Structures are given as structure tokens and as C-alpha cells.
Amino acid sequence: MTSFADLGLSEDTLAALRDVGYESPSPIQVQAIPPLLEGRDVIGQAQTGTGKTAAFGLPMIEYVDPSEGTHQALVLTPTRELCIQVTQALRAYAARKGVDVVAVFGGAPIRSQTAQLRAGGHIVVGTVGRVLDLISRHSLLLHDTRFVVLDEADEMLDLGFLEDVERILALTPGSRQTSLFSATIPPEVRSLAARYLLDPVTVRVKTPTLTVETIEQFALETKPREKDEALERVLAAEQPGQAIVFVRTKIRCEQLYKRLRDRGFDVKALHGDMSQGARDGVMISFKSGRLRLLVATDVAARGLDISSVTHIINFDVPTSPDVYVHRIGRTGRVGRSGRAITFYEPRQRRELEAIERNANTTISPWTEGAHVAPAKVEERPRRHSKPHVARNGAEPQAKLIVNAGRSAGLEVADLVNAVTAGAGLDGEAVRNVRVLDRFAFLEVPESDAQRVVDSVTGRTVRGARLRLERAAG
Questions:
Q1: C-alpha angle 376-380-382 in degrees, rounded to nearest 5
Q2: Distance between CA atoms of residues 290 and 154, nearest Å
């Protein structure tokens, strides 16, 4: 197995990786880090959650000189949430080298970000709009920028940012090293790469192969309000030796942990809001076998490779077949048998079928006994908190972006309901709703757009506090 040391990283970087608990590189890191260390341009195609930030961030940190007071590297991201996430990761990787990482994004005071850039910013991570704004104010100078990364380029395309990305690239030195990472490579992104990357190395991460011989897979249909009780019923029936319960969000992780703890289970939580020391303590307890039950998010559970795990419970349906494969692969290790049980709501049946189809596996109904049966769909008439306004569909439409998506547990119906309840629109007036991993799009009549933004922003749906704004382009 390849180690981080095998990839040619320095001892300082290897120590930083040990500090954050990374044990071995992911496939995208194995393929992308060596050519980036050689100075090559790289196109990396991989899904979210495969370790792309370290893949481009570690080589960048290797070559950034902390003694120089210039902006040596720029990472462009499509959303502020990803900007913050990438910044936090890069700061952790760069901690031992003294490299300063500054995040710049809309929705935050530009003066404070300008001050941070004056004070440092060897690496600048930013959203496209805020980067352009700072450039126009002469607060961000890119003439010494030797490394540029376009992260989630297909999402930048969806948001209408590619033209602005080209404006930014045109202001950087022609001798820069450029890398582009994207889950998909549509023609527009491929054309951008052809214009701005020099003889790039293309690396792709395929969907992991699932070995099903030692993993029994089951699914249990349940209504949202009955999931907690269903979990307790499954745990009582299965009596796992050691189990990981996966949830989508940090908030849900904490809520479920507290409920199980209060009911006497030997359980701990593992999520990204915990301090590194607290996460380490939980990991040590679980790996040693002293802890039987762990409630975890996908990102926090990275690096958990424990042969004694007997059960994986997907409390929330995984966001993709890749995530499903990665989760359940943590049981059934070293020839032992394992069991994976996935909870799904009636409306998520198609998601589960897609996982079966794309992971090339079969998921059977879970039953405790003859008395256990899948929950039935409960039909309810639609209700509106305000009088709804019907539309003829002929009005000009405004495209809005929502700050949360599948990773927060949101679905199309959630967003439609939030708009109809918050702004009083008829459901048919909400069009072209697309829920992506970290954000979503929807269209509403132009005449109602600002009212929708104002009335829906601040509403909490599935634990996510929504923020809406007009999409560029």
C-alpha cells in the first residue's frame, strides 16, 4: 500500500498529516500529488469526498515560501461553504510550515478580508465574485501567483462563473502551475482546460469496487419521525459487536448521539465541529474496542479502518453510490462477515434503487421478525401557510441559489415547500429545482424573486439554515 512518504512529501508535511490523523493517501492523492510535485498541470476527475483538497493542497504547500510576503497561490471555489472548508483543511496541512491561508468570500465584511490580505495570505482561497471584487480594488495582486487551482469546476459552470474564472486566470503569470478538479468534465470545462492548462496530466478516480461476499446488505423503510425509534429497534434486534451509524450532517450527528446516550447506549459522536483532541479520544476508544457504538459523519470517519466493526447503519441514505460503498466497506474486513442496514424514507426509494444499480449489488428488506413491515406512505393534502398565488408560467424567471444541498439532507420537495410556505407562491411557480451536493438551484417568477429571497432566507429545513441569493449569469 502506498504511503504519504512514498509520494515525495517533506517531513514537515508528513508530520502535519499525522497531526490531523491521516494514515494513508486516497486514490486521487496517489495519482495527483506526484505530477503536481513535478510541476505539471493536472486535471483531476473525482467525486466529492475523495480527498481532492489534500491532492492539490499538499504539493502547493510544499513549494509556497512563507518568507515571501506575496500571494503565491490561489484556489477558486464556487461557493463560500466550500471556500471555508478548503481553507480549514489547508491551514491544518500547512500548520508546521508557517504558511498563511486567507479565505475571501461574499457575505462577509470586505474590509476585514482586505486587512488579512495586507497582513499575509501566502495562499488565498476565494469565491469567484469576491476575488474579482478584491482585484478591482487592488487589494489582491496576482502577479506573483505561481499556483492556481480551480476546485469543483463543473459547479462553477453551473453557477455561470466560467467567464469570470477566465478573467482571473488572465491576470496570473503565464508560467503558473494550474490544476483543475471536478466531479464531471462537461465540454465547457474541457474547453477551459484546453485554453489555460499546459499539457495537463489527467487523473481519474473510478467508483470503488464493492466486495459483497462478506457483507449482508439490508434496507428498512421508515417515516422521518419514526427513524429514531427504528434505530433503537434495529440495535436491540441486531446486538452489534461494534457498529458505526452514519448521518449526513454534524447537527444530526450530535442530536442522535444525545438521544442514544440518554437511553443508556454506550455511544460517542464523531463530527467535524469537535476539537482534534476530542476526535482522537473517540477514535482511540473505538479502535481499542472499549466503545461499541459510534455516530459519525462521513468526513469525520475518514481513516477509520477497524476489523472488529460488525455493523454499518446508514441512518441517512448516502448521497451517492460511491459514499454507500465507502461506508459499508468499513465492515466485513479481513474475511469476517458484516451487516449493513440502510434507512430510507418512502420518497427515497428511487435513491436506494440507484445505489443498487450503480454499485451492482442487491439490498434486501430488513425484518426483525414477521411483525416488522415497511412503513406505508402517508398521504397528506398540501397545506399553505399563506394564500397561494397561481401562475400562468409566462413570466420571466429568476434563478436563485440555495446555500445547502444533498449533504445537508435537502431534497427537491423540501425547497419547494420552503418557498411555498415562506413566500406564499404556488408550488407550480417553483421551477427547475436542482439539488447538488453543497447547494441547490431553483427558479421563480422574476417579480417574486426578491420576496422569495427575503422570506425564505433564515428558514431552517432539516437542520440547515437556508440562505438564498440570485445566481450569476
A1: 145
A2: 44
- 397-470 classified as CATH 1.10.940.10: no
- Residue 149 makes CB contacts below 8 A (sequence gap 6+) with 56, 60, 73, 74, 75, 76, 178, 179, 180, 181
The residues spanned by each domain of the chain are: 5-204, 215-365, 397-470
Superfamily of domain 5-204: P-loop containing nucleotide triphosphate hydrolases (3.40.50.300)
CA distances for 372 relative to 316, 338, 365, angstroms: 20, 21, 10
Residues of the chain with pLDDT under 70: 1, 47-49, 206-214, 276, 299-307, 322, 332-336, 369-394, 426-428, 472-473
C-alpha pair distances (Å), 115 with each of 28, 111, 128: 35, 6, 19
In angstroms, the CA 361 to CA 364 distance is 10
pLDDT of residue 370: 32
Asked whether the domain spanning 397-470 has the same topology as the one spanning 5-204, the reply is no
Q: Is the pTM of this model over 0.70?
A: no
Quick one: cell of 36? 503536481
Predicted confidence at residue 62, as pLDDT, reads 95
Cell of 298: 462521513
- Residue 109, C-beta contacts closer than 8 angstroms, at least 6 positions apart: none
pLDDT at 307: 66
User: Please, which residues have CB within 8 angstroms of residue 57's CB and are 6 or more apart in sequence?
Assistant: 75, 86, 89, 90, 93
The topology (CATH level 3) of 215-365 is Rossmann fold (3.40.50)
Structure confidence by residue, pLDDT tens digits, 116-160: 999 989 999 999 999 999 999 999 999 999 999 999 898 888 788
